[in-house]
Amino acid sequence: MKTIPLEAFLVVSMILFGLGVIGIIARRNLVTVLMSLELALNAVNIALVGADHHLGLAEGQIFALFIIALAATEAAVGLGIIIAIFRLKKVESTDEISELRG
Amino acid sequence: MGKLIIFGFFSLMAILSGIGIITLKNPVYVVVALLSSLIAVAGIFFTAGAELVGALQLLIYAVAIAIFYIIVISAVPWQKAKKSETHHRFEGLISLPVVLLLYIEMIVVFLLGVKASPKGEIAKFIEKIGNAEVVGAILFSKYFLAFEVVSLVLLVGMIGAVLIGRKESQTYEDDTT
After folding, report:
1. Higher-pLDDT residue of A89, A25
2. Which residues from chain A sit within 8 angstroms of residue B122, using beta carbons?
3. From B143's CA, which of A7, B22, B74, B149 has a CA 20 to 30 Å away?
């Protein structure tokens, strides 16, 4: 029944999460930053579903469903914010938005 | 053994697409890489036996959200972005060790939690009546309040997106100097 070990899920999840965080930190384009965030959320989903597969529970899949719903909300609000920033300031790079820098 | 090979194939595909997400320059190529990665993650869900989550991943992520990104990219003029799209190199280099450290901490917590959690309470139900039924039964009984709260969050997010994204009657370009 259980042929895939839990560690395999965790390693894949770790690599994808690291790639997503690198994208969030290192990309300059605002839309690609949001897409890297989606990748990191997917990595968390992999960890939850892998834990379910290991434990024989169903709670992790329910949390994964909640994460998918919240990711949809986050994409809608985040892209709305990006469009508003672009419309107000005509910038789309994370370097040019520095009003909160002390 | 066959399951492990399929799992390795899907995870390799997801990781290669993830590398594409953080390295490609054109935002449209990045959307295509994201779509490939999402589909591979859905494959990982299927190999783990989570059919409902995999199907919803394909429906919501790979169709709805990816199309949403493509619509936004095509709605915003990106001439300036195509010229200046590069990476923060130093931050990109130092982010991986820090993130690995944090994630190793998370994995330690996770493994300890797995060791302490009750093993396989409902495994026989899953074998008897299938994955989607079990998820639905638990979702609508034990986590019903959380389900309702998620629907409220979706409503608030929809209202917020409409309010943020609507056209302003006045612009604030003079305030930003």
Report:
1. A25
2. 56-58
3. A7
Shortest distance, CA B31 to any CA of chain A (angstroms): 8
- Band of pLDDT at residue B177, cut at 50, 70 and 90: very low
What are the pLDDT digits (tens) for B45-101? 888 888 888 888 888 888 888 888 888 888 777 665 555 556 667 777 777 777 777
A100 falls within a domain = no
Domain range annotation of chain B: 1-85
Average pLDDT, chain B: 78
Within a domain: A40: yes
* A50 close to B (CB below 8 A): yes
Written as six digits, the tokens of B53 are: 């989550």
CATH entry 1.20.120.1200 includes domain B1-85? yes
CA distance A88 to B129: 54
Instruction: State how far the Cα of B50 lies from the Cα of A53, in Å rounded to an integer.
Output: 8
Instruction: Kindly provide the ipTM of the predicted complex, given to two decimals.
Output: 0.87
Which DSSP symbol is given to B175? T
Q: Is A67 near chain B, with CB under 8 Å?
A: no
pLDDT for B90 equals: 73
CATH code, domain with A16: 1.10.287.3510
Lowest mean pLDDT among A43-47, A63-67, B3-7: B3-7
Decide if A102 is inside a domain. Answer: no
Question: What dihedral angle (degrees, nearest 10) is formed by the CA atoms of A53, B142, A70, B36?
Answer: 20
What is the count of structural domains for chain A? Answer: 1
How far apart (Å, rounded) are the C-alpha atoms in residues A58 and A52?
6
Does residue A19 form part of some domain? yes
